[in-house]
């Protein structure tokens, strides 16, 4: 009997030890609230770009004036860099550092951002450029690339948000964006001009936050589905579609009505990067935090549903 109690005691101690050694790595950014993550793999690092959620605790909407950047070599330790871009860097814009994405082309880094236009009513998309992934960035055009009057698919003034950019294997660059309607267009090689018509893609319960990525020989278009948002996705063998809807990829965050995702492969592992309203200490829909979890594919190329964890990347 004595021996049984002794073994039980040792077992309890080892369980306790295991529990204590688990680290909660999510959210990955803990020094400030951040939303709308967009990751860029460049050389042997991941650069994480996000909007800075500055809303006070009792504020019921977004307060966002700047974008921030962090970098990591292992997806666990994140280095913070000085603020590389603000709404005020776009003289024609008046507010709202909403969702964005950075892409590299020929050694230059192009940051496609959402802002509120100063004179053309509605949201708009601008482009900033830098020689370094951590900036500083400057307005590449001196005017918006996309304005609300260029897209007629919906009447709302906030449909021209959430740019995602992809350069296909043949060198052709594409811009996808939109709230309520998913728009896409080709970009010229200079990355600062639309080339040809703006198209529209029909996707079930499309809300916003498109993200294009490729894995093996499939193209994936993931997006925020319904509101409050889940993340769903469609797949195609061509970036020009047709896109086949494949269902939900990530469930409701629960503590934030948006979830905005970014998907990358880095050093042989796929990652799902997103935000939620995790408490650091007063998180919520307008005080969001960026998290990372692993992403896995099935043999047929479909993606396994994401499991959001507190542990994150160990
Ligand atoms: O951060 C402001 C807006 O919230 C983004 O543009 C949307 O994607 C949603 O996350």
Please, could you describe this protein's structure?
This protein is mainly β. The protein has a single domain, classed as Glycosyl hydrolase domain, family 43 (Tachylectin-2, Chain A, 5 Propeller), CATH 2.115.10.20. Helices cover 6% and strands 43% of the residues. It contains 1 helix and 20 strands. The strands form 5 sheets. Strands 1, 2, 3, 4 and 5 form a 5-stranded antiparallel β-sheet that branches. Strands 6-7-8-9 form a 4-stranded antiparallel β-sheet, with no helix packed on it. A 4-stranded antiparallel β-sheet has the order 10-11-12-13, with no helix packed on it. The longest helix is centred in the first third of the chain and has 20 residues. The radius of gyration is 21 Å and the shape is globular. The protein starts with a helix and ends in a 19-residue tail after the last strand. The protein binds beta-L-arabinofuranose. Beta-L-arabinofuranose binds next to strand 1, strand 6 and strand 14.
CATH architecture: 5 Propeller
Ligand names:
beta-L-arabinofuranose
Coarse morphology: globular
Strand content: 35-45%
N- and C-termini, Cα separation: 39 Å
Helical fraction equals under 10%
Query: Mind telling me the CATH class?
Result: Mainly Beta
The pLDDT mean sits at: 94
CATH topology: Tachylectin-2, Chain A
Radius of gyration: 21 Å
Judged by helices, strands and strand pairing, the structural class is: mainly beta
Number of helices in the DSSP assignment:
1
Largest sheet: 5 strands, antiparallel
- Run of helices and strands: HEEEEEEEEEEEEEEEEEEEE
Count the domains.
Answer: 1
**Total number of strands:** 20
Give the uncertain stretches in residue-range form. 4-19
Instruction: Give the full name of the CATH homologous superfamily.
Output: Glycosyl hydrolase domain, family 43
Organism: Flavobacterium resistens
GO molecular function: hydrolase activity, hydrolyzing O-glycosyl compounds
GO biological process, one term: xylan catabolic process
Signal peptide: 1-19
């Amino acid at each position: 009997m004595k021996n049984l109690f002794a073994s039980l005691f040792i077992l309890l101690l080892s369980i306790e030890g295991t529990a204590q050694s688990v680290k909660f790595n999510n959210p990955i950014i803990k020094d400030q609230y951040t939303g709308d993550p967009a990751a860029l793999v460049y050389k042997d690092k991941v650069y994480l770009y996000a909007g800075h959620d500055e809303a006070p605790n009792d504020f019921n909407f977004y307060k966002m004036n700047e974008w921030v950047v962090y970098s990591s070599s292992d997806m666990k330790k994140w280095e913070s860099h000085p603020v590389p871009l603000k709404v005020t860097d776009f003289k024609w814009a008046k507010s709202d550092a909403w969702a964005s994405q950075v892409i590299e082309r020929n050694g230059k880094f192009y940051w496609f951002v959402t802002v509120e236009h100063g004179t053309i009513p509605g949201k708009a998309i601008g482009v900033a450029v830098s020689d370094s992934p951590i900036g500083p960035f400057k307005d590449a055009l001196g005017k918006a690339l996309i304005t609300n009057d260029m897209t007629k698919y919906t009447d709302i003034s906030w449909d021209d948000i959430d740019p995602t950019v992809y350069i296909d294997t043949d060198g052709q660059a594409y811009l996808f964006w939109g709230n309520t309607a998913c728009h896409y267009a080709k970009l010229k090689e200079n990355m600062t001009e639309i080339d040809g018509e703006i198209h529209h893609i029909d996707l079930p319960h499309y809300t916003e936050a498109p993200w294009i990525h490729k894995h093996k020989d499939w193209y994936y278009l993931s997006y925020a589905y319904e509101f409050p948002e889940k993340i769903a996705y469609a797949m195609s063998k061509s970036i020009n579609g047709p896109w086949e809807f494949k269902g939900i990829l990530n469930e409701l965050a629960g503590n934030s009505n948006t979830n905005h995702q970014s998907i990358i492969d880095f050093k042989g592992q796929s990652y799902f990067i997103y935000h939620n309203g995790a408490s650091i200490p007063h998180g919520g829909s307008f005080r969001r935090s960026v998290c990372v979890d692993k992403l896995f594919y099935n043999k047929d190329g479909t993606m396994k549903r994401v499991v959001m964890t507190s542990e994150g990347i160990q």
